[in-house]
Specification:
76% helix; single chain; mainly alpha; flat; 3 helices
């Protein structure tokens, strides 16, 4: 077990030097990897998303007047507090 860890450690230490010696091949390999990964993501989120049908809900949306009024009231209270804070004069701490 310990021998395998040492071999892995030695390999990982030599890897950057080996990749730098073959910079062009490393570049091409990373480019191909990026193209494959990008193609997979594009296929997954664009092509497959267009093929699936959108499920239409049977239940229609209902506007909840009470909830709207509560939210509107909270926003108005916040706006009033901001206006009060804007008009309040604070003493200059640097005098």
């Amino acid at each position: 077990m310990m021998l395998k860890l040492k071999k892995i450690e030695v390999f990982l230490k030599k890897l950057p030097k080996a990749l730098a010696e073959r910079a062009f091949l490393t570049y091409l390999g990373l480019l191909v990897l990026a193209l494959v990964l990008g193609s997979f993501i594009f296929y997954r989120y664009n092509i497959l998303a267009k093929k699936t049908e959108v499920q239409i809900s049977e239940k229609s949306l209902k506007f909840e007047e009470k909830t709207y009024d509560k939210v509107l009231k909270i926003w108005q209270e916040r706006e009033e507090r901001l206006k009060k804070a804007d008009t309040k004069e604070y003493p200059n701490p640097f005098k």
